[in-house]
Specification:
Radius of gyration: 28 Å
Structural class: mainly alpha
Largest sheet: 5 strands, mixed
Shape: elongated
Strand content: 5-15%
Helix content: 55-70%
Length: 615
Amino acid sequence: MAEPPVETPSPDPVDAPDVPAPTARPSFSRRELSWALGFAVAIAVLTSLPYLWALITQKYGYQYLGFVYNPDEPNVHLSWIRQAQEGALFFRNEFTSEPHVGRFFNLFMLALGRLAALAHTTPYAVWAAARVVAAIALCLAIYAAMVPLTRSVRLRRQGVVLVALSAGLGWLVVAWGLGIDAVDVEPNRVMPEAITFLSLYLNPLFTSSMLLLLGAMLLGADALRRERWLPAVGAGLLGLLLANVHTYDVIPLCLVLTAWLIDLSVRDGWRWRRFGLLVVVLALLGPAVVYQAHLIHGDPLYAAKANTVTATPPLLAMLLSYGLLLPLAVVGARRTLRMRLEAGRFLCYWAVLHFACIYLPATLFPFQRKMIEGFHLPLALLATLGVRQTARWLAHGVAWQATAPQMRKYGRAWPVLADMAARRLAWQKPLTTLILAALMPSNLLFVLSTLDNVRTNNQEKISVLMPPFSLPQTDLAALAWLKRNSERDSVVLCMPLVGNYVPALIGRTVYVGHWAETINYGTKLNEFAAFMKGDGSADDKTAWLRENRIAYLFMGTYETAWTDGQHPQLPVLERVYPPEGKLAALELPPVQIFRVKPTEEAKPPAEATSPRPNP
């Protein structure tokens, strides 16, 4: 970004003052890069340990499927990766039974799918590898973003630690039992994209989007400040990828860069070159936005999913979710403005305008809360400078209290001032460490809560049909059989607990499987319950199966427990799994699969309507 003001360099770069490099453009040494890379790898390993623990401690007879938090969203991504692995360029929605042509295009998922095909591995394997690689890349980018803010190596390191590990006061909300849904921690309404650590921990799509957003923001700001075309092209290309991967992130990107252009024009005078640079950025990212708009307006199925309202929580919940970061960021912003740091000034615009985006009208932006992704980055970067300044203030207060008696007795004698300065320096580092530690409990509590949910196999969330983390091996064996013995476009009827995994694991469409991806999710749940347990004629139930193109009824462990082993006794349902030769006499199999006979094979339906136990 812009060259900062000149200052005499400190002899010790580790303890250098928190101001930028004096003459040349900010940079960092190979030793700094080694430290940043080591920290990034450590974060990637740290966030992988819960996954390894879950794998090692999986229950006998069950198979752990690789998640530590709500599996519903990652399974959608795995469905796209599987389709790309099988050669698809545009993706279908396999979580809803309505007939449609796949038109969704996502470069990130396409790349992972093609990689899985080249490596002859599973979609989950490349998804997990992408989580690790994206975490490392984002941590390195965060360190690079600290360079224009300070020439102090220690402060740069504190910055990447704070951004990667900080959260808000959600842990206090949980501890006090307040009825506020803080989004930085369990149990009610956590938003992984709102906190950098949660994104690193849970989802490579969030992490990669934040990486693209950070790069586009910094390159765009640098291009407008220095009036350079190459950074503008780089920002536009990163914006193009961002608009394709997470389209709603371009709204804060465009808003912030526009405000930055106005600020520069007010201070330095209007120049058409700067306006042209912004036009280049917007023109390059524009095609991806136009394509997404075309999908929404031209595909009713995609529009129904895209217009699912995800409203932002109340302001108090959001303020508590960022907690101490907010006042620390204010302190840091004040310091950057007083020092006339261009990088800090831009971060102030980014933080304020990005937060404002999540409260844009939900009638125009139904994905309201999703625009919070990336807000934590400028907030925590500014808070890093705030931590340093706050620690100095606190250390000065401690030193003053310790030397006050001497000050009253001897006045401003040199030994007294030297003693106070020494005490201030001695207290500054431990106070900085204490402030940093106070920003991390929510993340620790979140990790502990995920481990507890993994231990109980998500039992607390089964009631709201959130999928478990492990499935019985008998169910997985039945799904593997279904993959080998069914057509690619078959629609499977089962509970969302299993149905959420079906597209990802075997590439089959489900009638109901995801709260947002399944069109008319609530209505379909009611219809599914009425089919399985409700009264109704065989003709009506058979017609319902035909209307929804359902080819198979999956009666797994969860379905059998829910219906007490019962299912509609319809002539059109033919049990195909397990094969008759493998079925012990008078023994109810733990998992059954029924094929819906095609019309030409079906016999006239009987008049009996109510569900009966299996023979």
